[in-house]
Specification:
By secondary structure, the chain is α+β, with helices and mostly antiparallel strands. It folds into 3 domains: about 80 residues, Acyl-CoA dehydrogenase/oxidase, N-terminal domain (Butyryl-Coa Dehydrogenase, subunit A, domain 1), CATH 1.10.540; about 140 residues, Butyryl-CoA Dehydrogenase, subunit A, domain 2, CATH 2.40.110; about 325 residues, Up-down Bundle (Butyryl-CoA Dehydrogenase, subunit A, domain 3). It contains 23 helices and 11 strands. The longest helix is centred in the middle third of the chain and has 36 residues. It starts with 12 loop residues before the first helix and ends with a helix. The mean pLDDT is about 95. Bound molecules: ligand LSRMNBYM and flavin-adenine dinucleotide (FAD). Flavin-adenine dinucleotide binds next to β1 and α13. Keywords: ATP-binding, FAD, Fatty acid metabolism, Flavoprotein, Lipid metabolism, Nucleotide-binding, Oxidoreductase, Peroxisome.
């Protein structure tokens, strides 16, 4: 069977020649990335969206105002739901729906942005059966639009300091929702400003003057017909952001707004009509919607980095600049070693983030079904894993996307490249769903507990089993036959374990000297977040290893293994100081890693375009002139620029108003 190499009539010849060099079938690689069923569904879905012009952008969003963007994406999302049954096989499949949304709507946000990603997951996990009937069904049926209103103007991280109050009024069997101060205004919830009519609101539960901490409440905020805010509710948009500007992130205040008692989400924690409170089976079960988003973010961020890598690598095969050998003609910029070193490690990261995203979703589904039965044992493990992954993956994605942007030179800075918008959305991920540093410290808490267990000869969980293993003094990198990468993975494990034990010992020493646990933690916070990062980077490398091992097809496994080995080398060099500190690695071994990395850049080079083609991002989804599949970049850049609103007339009014009078006056002065 011939290998599928994604060649189409009308393609730029340069790209066709590149594609013909591939050593593997791109559709099979797509199956390894997405799973064969989803890869097929994605392909079919993209073709259907291509045919449905109502789902197409009416013009490039870069040339729109915020209000036009909101309106455009509201139009498309409505059309998307109207045609959903003809396009997707299973509308309850989040991955298929995300792909549809990426194709039709893009990543700038839309009125249902938080509805599906948080509002519905919060209802699924926290509403009891009767409440599900009342809100989940209408929410799934698009009879209402919901958001998740937790963060306040004054507090986002420290949830215990949230100020919004939900005071139980026994006499009327109601809660009184109130915003006591300006800092208590809800601030940031997506699609709240102008679109949503319902919100899951986090507020302090107060019964007979006693506070029980924050809980989630269903609050209708706008009239379902007029869409006007209900009495006692103030709501609006918080203004433009770095990106994601088709989303109306909003503010929300309550003036003694009353809701029925049964609007508190009561699957786990409960309040009866006499004001008797029942505790949930796990104190943090109400945080499940956050854990859900953290778990989906990993794969999404991988896709964002995959998109940026696709754009930069395709463009680097079209762009020629300078000569390597004088007189032999200008080369494709991807032929420069520096360009390969800039881009291929980002491509490898995109792959592993997508693999990790899949693993973590499987764990989330398991925890969710356990929670349904009141079983919460794995919740802490999941929280620790997602906290670390969310932070490391968003951070590396953003750094990687910036490399992709710079690798496109000047054109990367243009919105025509498509990178600025996806970068802007991805960088939001460093902040939303828990600020990265804060979440790393959550994982560090778990790791410190794991050390305590390890010292008793036990493991806190599967993810930290490696802490029980003895430390090797020296690495075997470069001391085993060429092509064996076991020692590389062992090096990740070594530096994570060493940093975890080192900081645990330092904490103990400070406490032994009489310092409180909290102050000792502060003194070692930077080292603690380092331990969390190293643990997560080991998890990612091990996940890549598991994936390569699981691939059956030899050609796919070989191409994936090249990326995996590059990942091991590149990431180890990025963290090499940790391995040098205890002389685990020697200078010659570092040189060995570098040389092997350069070798791998050359090995990967002929497969580069097919490795990005394998993501199977459609042109519609990429929204990038530079990353076009057919490679016809220059003529389309010119076409795109002509669409700029500034080109609507040769002379714009500001010239006559300001510049012309100034220049005339200057000329007159010089004539005097
Ligand atoms: C965790 C906190 C930092 C601290 O919480 P507490 O103060 O309650 O902690 P304590 O000190 O009391 O207890 C610590 C203890 O609890 C354990 N813990 C904490 N959390 C959990 C948990 N979730 N599960 C289990 N256990 C938990 C912890 O391990 C400790 O245990 P030990 O004591 O045993 O050590 C908390 O304050 C916190 O989480 N803060 C962060 C707040 C946050 O994350 N807010 C999120 C707000 S919502 C939001 O940001 C939404 C963003 C959505 C944006 C969507 C954009 C989408 C972009 C496009 C991509 C997707 C596309 C989607 C579809 C489409 O649009 O098409
Ligand atoms: C695009 C976007 C969409 C959002 N969507 C929603 C939404 O739909 N619903 C919603 O409720 N919220 C939403 N948010 C809010 C978001 O969840 C919060 O902004 C986020 O959790 C961070 O909280 P913060 O803003 O209070 O940051 P802060 O906590 O004020 O962070 C500022 C700095 O303080 C540091 N810091 C804070 N606490 C600690 C600590 N304990 N230890 C060490 N350092 C600390 C942080 O590391 C950071 O450097 C959104 C935010 C963005 C950007």
């Amino acid at each position: 069977m011939p290998l599928n190499k994604e060649i189409q009539p009308g393609d730029n010849d340069e790209l066709t020649r590149e594609r013909l060099q591939a050593t593997f079938d791109t559709q099979q690689m797509a199956a390894a990335l997405w799973g064969s069923d989803l890869a097929r569904k994605r392909r079919e879905l993209a073709k259907k969206v291509d045919k449905l012009t109502v789902l197409h952008d009416s013009k490039d969003m870069s040339f729109m105002t915020r209000e036009e963007k909101l309106s455009e994406n509201a139009r498309k999302v409505v059309q998307m739901f109207a045609h959903v049954a003809d396009i997707v096989e299973d509308p309850s499949d989040d991955a298929e729906m995300f792909h549809l949304s990426s194709n039709a709507i893009g990543h700038e946000g839309h009125p249902f942005g938080v509805h599906f990603v948080m509002f519905i997951p919060a209802l699924k996990a926290q509403a009891d059966d009767e409440q599900r009937e009342k809100w989940l069904m209408p929410a799934l049926g698009l009879q209402l639009i919901g958001t998740y209103a937790q963060t306040e103007l004054g507090h986002g991280t420290n949830l215990r300091a949230l100020e919004t109050m939900a005071t139980f009024d026994k006499a009327t069997d109601e809660f009184v929702i109130h915003t006591p101060t300006v800092t208590a205004l809800k601030w940031w919830p997506g699609s709240l400003g102008k679109s949503s009519n319902h919100a899951v609101v986090s507020a302090n539960l107060i019964i007979d003057g006693k506070s029980y901490g924050h809980h989630n409440f269903m609050v209708q905020i706008r009239d379902e017909n007029t869409h006007k805010p209900l009495k006692g509710i103030t709501v609006g948009d918080i203004g433009p952001k770095m990106a994601y500007n088709a989303s109306d992130n909003g503010f929300l205040g309550f003036d003694h707004h009353r809701i029925p008692r049964r609007n508190m989400l009561m699957r786990h924690a409960k309040v009866d009509k006499n004001g008797v409170y029942t505790k949930p089976p796990h104190a943090k079960i109400g945080y499940s919607a956050m854990v859900h988003v953290r778990s989906v973010m990993i794969g999404h961020q991988g896709m964002f980095l995959g998109s940026a890598s696709t754009i930069a690598i395709r463009y680097s095969l079209v762009r020629r600049q300078g000569e390597i050998k004088e007189g032999s003609g200008e080369v494709k910029i991807l032929d420069y070693q520096t360009q390969q070193h800039r881009l291929f490690p980002q491509l490898a990261r995109a792959y592993v983030f997508m693999f990790a995203g899949k693993e973590v979703r499987e764990l989330y589904q398991k925890v969710l079904s356990d929670m349904e039965k009141g079983e919460t044992t794995l919740l802490a493990d999941l929280h620790a894993l997602t906290s670390g992954l969310k932070s490391v993956v968003t951070h590396l994605c953003v750094a990687g996307m910036e490399q992709c942007r710079m690798a496109c030179g000047g054109h990367g800075y243009s919105r025509a490249s498509g990178i600025p918008e996806i970068w802007g959305v991805a960088v939001g991920g460093c902040t939303y769903e828990g600020e990265n540093m804060v979440m790393l410290l959550q994982l560090a808490r778990y790791l410190m507990k794991a050390v305590k267990e390890t010292k008793k000869g036990k493991s806190l969980g599967r993810l930290v089993d490696y802490l029980l293993l003895p430390q090797d003094r020296h690495s075997l990198i470069g001391r085993v036959p060429q092509g064996e990468y076991g020692p590389h993975l062992a090096a990740f494990e070594h530096i994570a374990r060493r940093q975890i034990f080192k900081v645990a010992d330092e904490l103990t020493k400070l406490q032994d000297k009489g310092m409180s646990k909290e102050i000792a933690w502060q003194k070692k916070a930077v080292e603690l977040q380092r331990a969390a990062r190293l643990h997560t980077r080991f998890y990612l490398a091990a996940c890549f290893h598991r994936k390569v091992q699981s691939v059956v097809d030899g050609r796919i496994r070989e191409a994936l293994a090249d990326l995996y080995h590059l990942h091991l080398n590149y990431e180890l060099l990025d963290m090499v100081n940790y391995a040098l500190e205890d002389a685990y690695l020697k200078a010659d071994q570092v040189d060995f890693i570098r040389e092997d990395m350069y070798r791998l850049l050359e090995t990967i080079r002929p497969n580069a375009i097919s490795l990005v083609d394998a993501f199977e991002f459609s042109d519609r989804e990429l929204r990038s002139v530079l990353g076009r599949r057919d490679g016809h970049v220059y003529e389309n850049l010119y076409k795109w620029a002509k669409e700029s609103e500034l080109n609507r007339a040769d002379v714009l009014p500001y010239f006559d108003k300001y510049l012309k009078p100034m220049m005339l006056a200057a000329r007159q002065r010089s004539n005097i």
